[in-house]
Amino acid sequence: MAGYRAEDDYDYLFKVVLIGDSGVGKSNLLSRFTKNEFNLESKSTIGVEFATRTLNVDGKVIKAQIWDTAGQERDPQILLSKTECFYFLVLKKFLYRAITSAYYRGAVGALLVYDVTRHATFENVDRWLKELRNHTDPNIVVMLVGNKSDLRHLVAVSTEDGKSYAERESLYFMETSALEATNVENAFAEVLTQIYRIVSKKSVDGGDEGASVPAQGERINVKDDASALKRVGCCSG
Ligand SMILES: Nc1nc2c(ncn2[C@@H]2O[C@H](COP(=O)(O)OP(=O)(O)O)[C@@H](O)[C@H]2O)c(=O)[nH]1
Ligand SMILES: [Mg+2]
After folding, report:
1. Which is deepest, 23, 126, 204, 234, by most CB within 10 Å?
2. How far apart (Å, rounded) are the C-alpha atoms in residues 23 and 69?
3. Rounded CA separation 217/195 (Å)
């Protein structure tokens, strides 16, 4: 692994979002990748958080800004009158929309996570993918991640099912364990590498249609994307 440079010394900044049901291990994948930490207690993520890590791809310093959020917000456990309830729901819908679009804005990569021991989290992948597609550039690099692969005796979603879903939807695919630190580095590094390939090819090609990812044929348009700006006098994040 190449050495780290100073915090603000990087060639590219890429925003990557973590999505998937609550409890699948998004926050632990993030802490494993950015701090090499794992937490056995489930602490729900409040609002939106992000963490960064810098890594080397093809001799370039890539700063990954990874966003993490709560998969589902829970309604407050208090009794509300009908009117209060109405206002609460309207406000919630409004806030949810605002937060959702801010969350996805400028993302050039995504890890869509499910829990291999809970089939329902795999069934919900469809919904997450729709939301992602509704809010991001069609050429975003997406990896489907089946997390908790260490719980071998509890597996409810086979590797084959994950893989074929990913193929059908043109996503990358990996099974990970945030607990055992299996494939976590690989999953993030693969997404960042594919983004970098697209971006660097794009600058060589002069930003036209030619930037395709060899394996998946995915393309990404980062021309107008502040998060993927090459750091030549741009504002730092
Ligand atoms: N066995 C196992 N448990 C995990 C793994 N990743 C997360 N967990 C546990 O699953 C629960 C939810 O994890 P968390 O990261 O908070 O999920 P999030 O809601 O998607 O952010 C916690 O109790 C974690 O300790 C994993 O790879 N293996
Ligand atoms: Mg979380």
Report:
1. 23
2. 11
3. 12
pLDDT tens digit sequence for 84-138: 888 888 888 888 888 888 999 999 999 999 999 999 999 999 999 999 999 999 9
Phi, psi of 78, deg, nearest 5: -135, 160
- The interaxial angle of helices 125-135 and 82-104, nearest 10 deg, is 70
Q: How far apart are CA 51 and CA 28, in angstroms?
A: 12
Domains, in order of start, for the chain: 12-74+106-229 (3.40.50.300)
| Test site for ligand 1: of 42, 43, 157, most ligand atoms within 8 A of the Cβ | 42
Contacts of 94 (CB under 8 A, 6+ apart): none
Place of tokens 């829990």: 115
| Nearest protein Cα to ligand 1, atom 12 | 23
Nearest to 71 by CA among 123, 15, 112: 112
CA dist., res. 208 & res. 115, Å (int): 38
Whole-number Å distance, alpha carbon 109 to ligand 2 midpoint, is 18
| 34, 51 Cβ separation under 8 angstroms | yes
d(CA 145, CA 142): 9
pTM: 0.81
Contact 124/131 with Cβ under 8 angstroms?
Answer: no
